[in-house]
Amino acid sequence: MEKGYIQVYTGPGKGKTTAALGQALRAVGHDMEVCIVYFYKMPEKWDYKGFSLLENLGVEIHGFAKKHPDFFESIGGGKARKETLRGLEMIEKIFDEKSFDMIILDEVIIAVRDGYIEEKELLGLLDKKPEETELVLTGRGATESLKQRADLVSDIRETKHHFNKGVERRKGIEY
């Protein structure tokens, strides 16, 4: 690609990661190189088949702060801050050393929302994005500055959800 854009999937509704993984699948289908860096996911516990399937298709995947944000809140935010900063360092290294057509930063917006990454740190990272790389960011609570900076913003809102009727997460649908 000559120019890669910045996409943001945010809002309180379900489907932000799903949308980003759909972007990854589409890109891989067009022989593009894709990398996913995720925060606050526990793939070994929640069995994220989407990640392992994409990895089998050649997508490079890295995870940081691999527990739910509530866990870090309960033990104090220092460890989450260190982990998310390690993630930012990894992303900068990827920008410098590897050539990806698309990089997905899954739940990075939550790290900003919860104060583990400062907004200016994330915006500074966006300044370092290679021109030709498509960058996709997900997570609830995107700041106005981030929304202004992005080229595409999808604010995903829940109108109706079966969780509100007591339905638990379903294998193959929510994870």
Taking the sheet with the most strands, its summary is:
6 strands, parallel
Radius of gyration: 16 Å
Proper CATH architecture: 3-Layer(aba) Sandwich
Task: Please provide the count of β strands.
Answer: 6
Count of helix runs: 8
| Cα distance spanning the termini | 31 Å
What percent of residues adopt helix (DSSP H or I)?
Answer: 40-55%
Any idea of the CATH topology? Rossmann fold
Question: How is this structure best described in words?
Answer:
The protein has one domain: 3-Layer(aba) Sandwich (Rossmann fold). It has 8 helices and 6 strands. The chain has helices at residues 16-29, 43-46, 49-56, 69-75, 78-97, 108-113, 119-127, 144-149; strands at residues 6-10, 34-39, 60-64, 102-106, 134-138, 152-155. The protein has a 6-stranded parallel sheet with strand order 3-2-4-5-1-6, sandwiched between helices. The mean pLDDT is 88.
Draw up the topology in text.
Blueprint (H helix, E strand, L loop, with lengths): L5 E5 L5 H14 L4 E6 L3 H4 L2 H8 L3 E5 L4 H7 L2 H20 L4 E5 L1 H6 L5 H9 L6 E5 L5 H6 L2 E4 L20
Parallel strand pairs: 1-5, 1-6, 2-3, 2-4, 4-5
